[in-house]
Input
Amino acid sequence: MRQFRNERQYEAIRQCSEERGYPIETLCQILHVSRAGYYQWHAGKLSPRAAENKRIAEQVEEIHGSSPDKGYRRIRDDLTRYYDTSVNDKRVRRICQSLGIKSTIKYARHSCTRSVSDPKHTAENILNRQFHADRPNEKWLTDVTEFKYYIGPAVHKVYLSAILDLYDRRIVAAVIRDANDCALVYETLDKAMTDNPDAHPLFHSDRGFQYTTQVFHDKLAAAGMICSL
Output
Protein backbone atom coordinates (compact mmCIF):
# COMPACT_ATOMS: atom_id res chain seq x y z
CA MET A 1 0.00 0.00 0.00
CA ARG A 2 1.41 3.33 -1.09
CA GLN A 3 -0.03 4.98 2.02
CA PHE A 4 2.47 3.36 4.39
CA ARG A 5 5.44 3.87 2.09
CA ASN A 6 4.53 7.54 1.74
CA GLU A 7 4.15 7.98 5.49
CA ARG A 8 7.80 7.09 5.96
CA GLN A 9 8.77 9.54 3.25
CA TYR A 10 6.56 12.22 4.76
CA GLU A 11 8.17 11.70 8.15
CA ALA A 12 11.63 12.03 6.59
CA ILE A 13 10.54 15.25 4.86
CA ARG A 14 9.21 16.68 8.11
CA GLN A 15 12.41 15.89 10.00
CA CYS A 16 14.67 17.29 7.27
CA SER A 17 12.57 20.44 7.02
CA GLU A 18 12.35 21.08 10.76
CA GLU A 19 15.88 20.03 11.73
CA ARG A 20 17.85 21.11 8.67
CA GLY A 21 15.63 23.79 7.16
CA TYR A 22 15.40 22.18 3.71
CA PRO A 23 12.51 23.41 1.51
CA ILE A 24 9.43 21.18 1.52
CA GLU A 25 9.00 21.45 -2.24
CA THR A 26 12.57 20.27 -2.92
CA LEU A 27 12.28 17.37 -0.49
CA CYS A 28 9.00 16.25 -2.09
CA GLN A 29 10.61 16.31 -5.53
CA ILE A 30 13.59 14.27 -4.33
CA LEU A 31 11.35 11.62 -2.77
CA HIS A 32 8.80 11.69 -5.61
CA VAL A 33 5.76 12.54 -3.50
CA SER A 34 3.26 15.32 -3.98
CA ARG A 35 3.32 18.43 -1.83
CA ALA A 36 -0.47 18.21 -1.48
CA GLY A 37 -0.16 14.69 -0.13
CA TYR A 38 2.52 15.75 2.33
CA TYR A 39 0.53 18.71 3.63
CA GLN A 40 -2.58 16.56 3.95
CA TRP A 41 -0.59 14.03 5.97
CA HIS A 42 1.01 16.78 8.06
CA ALA A 43 -2.43 18.21 8.86
CA GLY A 44 -3.65 14.80 9.97
CA LYS A 45 -6.33 14.65 7.28
CA LEU A 46 -6.80 11.07 6.13
CA SER A 47 -9.63 9.54 4.15
CA PRO A 48 -11.80 7.06 6.09
CA ARG A 49 -10.18 4.19 4.19
CA ALA A 50 -6.66 5.49 4.87
CA ALA A 51 -7.47 6.07 8.54
CA GLU A 52 -8.81 2.52 8.85
CA ASN A 53 -5.71 1.10 7.15
CA LYS A 54 -3.55 3.08 9.56
CA ARG A 55 -5.46 1.65 12.53
CA ILE A 56 -5.18 -1.90 11.19
CA ALA A 57 -1.48 -1.39 10.46
CA GLU A 58 -0.87 -0.42 14.07
CA GLN A 59 -2.64 -3.56 15.23
CA VAL A 60 -0.67 -5.68 12.76
CA GLU A 61 2.61 -4.24 14.04
CA GLU A 62 1.55 -4.98 17.62
CA ILE A 63 0.72 -8.61 16.77
CA HIS A 64 3.95 -9.03 14.82
CA GLY A 65 5.97 -7.49 17.65
CA SER A 66 4.67 -10.03 20.16
CA SER A 67 4.57 -13.00 17.75
CA PRO A 68 7.07 -12.52 14.91
CA ASP A 69 6.55 -16.13 13.78
CA LYS A 70 3.02 -15.38 12.56
CA GLY A 71 2.35 -14.88 8.85
CA TYR A 72 -0.44 -12.73 7.46
CA ARG A 73 -3.10 -15.45 7.74
CA ARG A 74 -2.50 -15.98 11.46
CA ILE A 75 -2.31 -12.21 11.95
CA ARG A 76 -5.69 -11.93 10.28
CA ASP A 77 -7.07 -14.54 12.67
CA ASP A 78 -5.77 -12.53 15.65
CA LEU A 79 -7.28 -9.32 14.28
CA THR A 80 -10.69 -10.97 14.16
CA ARG A 81 -10.44 -12.83 17.45
CA TYR A 82 -8.67 -10.33 19.71
CA TYR A 83 -9.09 -6.90 18.09
CA ASP A 84 -12.65 -7.18 16.77
CA THR A 85 -11.31 -6.19 13.33
CA SER A 86 -12.97 -8.08 10.50
CA VAL A 87 -10.73 -7.92 7.43
CA ASN A 88 -9.88 -10.29 4.59
CA ASP A 89 -6.57 -12.02 3.95
CA LYS A 90 -5.68 -9.92 0.91
CA ARG A 91 -5.91 -6.65 2.79
CA VAL A 92 -3.80 -7.93 5.67
CA ARG A 93 -1.24 -9.28 3.21
CA ARG A 94 -0.99 -5.90 1.48
CA ILE A 95 -0.53 -4.14 4.81
CA CYS A 96 2.12 -6.66 5.90
CA GLN A 97 3.96 -6.23 2.60
CA SER A 98 3.88 -2.45 2.97
CA LEU A 99 5.30 -2.69 6.48
CA GLY A 100 7.87 -5.29 5.48
CA ILE A 101 6.33 -7.83 7.85
CA LYS A 102 6.70 -11.54 7.20
CA SER A 103 6.88 -14.64 9.33
CA THR A 104 10.31 -15.31 10.79
CA ILE A 105 9.77 -19.06 10.30
CA LYS A 106 10.53 -20.68 6.95
CA TYR A 107 8.59 -23.87 6.53
CA ALA A 108 10.09 -26.76 4.60
CA ARG A 109 7.82 -29.52 3.44
CA HIS A 110 8.56 -32.69 5.38
CA SER A 111 5.31 -34.51 4.72
CA CYS A 112 5.94 -38.11 3.84
CA THR A 113 2.47 -39.21 2.78
CA ARG A 114 2.35 -40.70 -0.69
CA SER A 115 -0.49 -40.36 -3.14
CA VAL A 116 -1.78 -43.54 -4.71
CA SER A 117 -2.80 -44.08 -8.32
CA ASP A 118 -5.94 -46.01 -7.40
CA PRO A 119 -7.38 -44.60 -4.15
CA LYS A 120 -10.27 -46.46 -2.55
CA HIS A 121 -11.96 -43.23 -1.60
CA THR A 122 -11.72 -39.67 -2.95
CA ALA A 123 -13.32 -36.39 -1.92
CA GLU A 124 -13.42 -32.76 -3.04
CA ASN A 125 -11.10 -30.12 -1.62
CA ILE A 126 -13.85 -28.52 0.45
CA LEU A 127 -11.45 -26.56 2.65
CA ASN A 128 -10.00 -24.83 -0.43
CA ARG A 129 -7.33 -22.94 1.55
CA GLN A 130 -9.87 -21.32 3.87
CA PHE A 131 -7.61 -21.60 6.90
CA HIS A 132 -9.89 -19.71 9.27
CA ALA A 133 -12.33 -21.19 11.75
CA ASP A 134 -14.89 -19.31 13.84
CA ARG A 135 -15.19 -21.89 16.59
CA PRO A 136 -13.37 -24.89 18.05
CA ASN A 137 -13.72 -28.24 16.27
CA GLU A 138 -15.00 -26.62 13.09
CA LYS A 139 -12.01 -27.52 10.88
CA TRP A 140 -9.27 -30.06 11.54
CA LEU A 141 -6.12 -30.61 9.48
CA THR A 142 -3.87 -33.64 9.57
CA ASP A 143 -0.58 -34.83 8.12
CA VAL A 144 2.36 -37.15 8.80
CA THR A 145 5.90 -35.82 9.22
CA GLU A 146 9.11 -37.84 9.08
CA PHE A 147 12.00 -37.26 11.49
CA LYS A 148 15.47 -38.76 11.36
CA TYR A 149 17.75 -39.49 14.29
CA TYR A 150 21.09 -41.24 14.69
CA ILE A 151 22.38 -43.98 16.94
CA GLY A 152 26.06 -43.95 16.14
CA PRO A 153 26.38 -43.89 12.36
CA ALA A 154 23.02 -45.60 11.82
CA VAL A 155 20.09 -43.52 10.62
CA HIS A 156 16.67 -44.22 12.11
CA LYS A 157 13.27 -42.72 11.35
CA VAL A 158 10.14 -41.96 13.35
CA TYR A 159 6.85 -40.63 12.06
CA LEU A 160 4.61 -38.07 13.72
CA SER A 161 0.91 -38.08 12.84
CA ALA A 162 -0.91 -35.01 14.17
CA ILE A 163 -4.35 -33.41 13.92
CA LEU A 164 -4.57 -29.64 14.32
CA ASP A 165 -7.62 -27.47 15.05
CA LEU A 166 -7.63 -24.41 12.79
CA TYR A 167 -9.51 -22.32 15.35
CA ASP A 168 -6.62 -21.92 17.80
CA ARG A 169 -3.91 -24.16 16.26
CA ARG A 170 -4.10 -26.59 19.17
CA ILE A 171 -2.95 -30.14 18.57
CA VAL A 172 -6.07 -32.28 18.90
CA ALA A 173 -4.17 -35.57 18.83
CA ALA A 174 -0.68 -36.79 18.01
CA VAL A 175 0.90 -40.22 17.69
CA ILE A 176 4.54 -41.18 17.06
CA ARG A 177 5.49 -44.56 15.62
CA ASP A 178 8.45 -46.04 13.81
CA ALA A 179 6.33 -47.05 10.81
CA ASN A 180 4.53 -44.81 8.36
CA ASP A 181 1.46 -46.94 7.81
CA CYS A 182 -2.32 -46.84 8.00
CA ALA A 183 -2.31 -47.87 11.65
CA LEU A 184 -0.50 -44.64 12.47
CA VAL A 185 -3.23 -42.35 11.14
CA TYR A 186 -6.05 -44.62 12.34
CA GLU A 187 -4.70 -44.44 15.88
CA THR A 188 -4.39 -40.66 15.65
CA LEU A 189 -7.99 -40.29 14.49
CA ASP A 190 -9.24 -42.70 17.17
CA LYS A 191 -7.44 -40.70 19.83
CA ALA A 192 -8.92 -37.41 18.55
CA MET A 193 -12.44 -38.87 18.55
CA THR A 194 -12.04 -40.33 22.04
CA ASP A 195 -10.86 -37.00 23.44
CA ASN A 196 -13.49 -35.00 21.51
CA PRO A 197 -16.59 -37.20 21.28
CA ASP A 198 -18.91 -34.31 20.35
CA ALA A 199 -16.71 -32.92 17.58
CA HIS A 200 -17.93 -33.19 13.98
CA PRO A 201 -15.44 -31.06 12.05
CA LEU A 202 -14.52 -30.69 8.42
CA PHE A 203 -11.53 -33.05 8.28
CA HIS A 204 -8.87 -32.04 5.72
CA SER A 205 -5.78 -33.95 4.61
CA ASP A 206 -3.68 -34.50 1.52
CA ARG A 207 -4.38 -37.47 -0.76
CA GLY A 208 -1.87 -39.75 0.94
CA PHE A 209 -2.53 -43.46 0.80
CA GLN A 210 -3.53 -43.61 4.49
CA TYR A 211 -6.28 -40.99 4.06
CA THR A 212 -7.88 -42.49 0.96
CA THR A 213 -8.55 -45.96 2.34
CA GLN A 214 -12.10 -47.14 2.82
CA VAL A 215 -11.40 -47.80 6.50
CA PHE A 216 -10.37 -44.20 7.13
CA HIS A 217 -13.38 -42.88 5.20
CA ASP A 218 -15.70 -45.12 7.21
CA LYS A 219 -14.20 -43.84 10.46
CA LEU A 220 -14.87 -40.24 9.43
CA ALA A 221 -18.41 -41.03 8.31
CA ALA A 222 -19.19 -42.88 11.54
CA ALA A 223 -17.98 -39.87 13.54
CA GLY A 224 -20.10 -37.45 11.49
CA MET A 225 -17.07 -35.71 10.01
CA ILE A 226 -16.92 -34.27 6.49
CA CYS A 227 -13.94 -35.42 4.46
CA SER A 228 -11.92 -32.89 2.48
CA LEU A 229 -8.90 -33.95 0.42
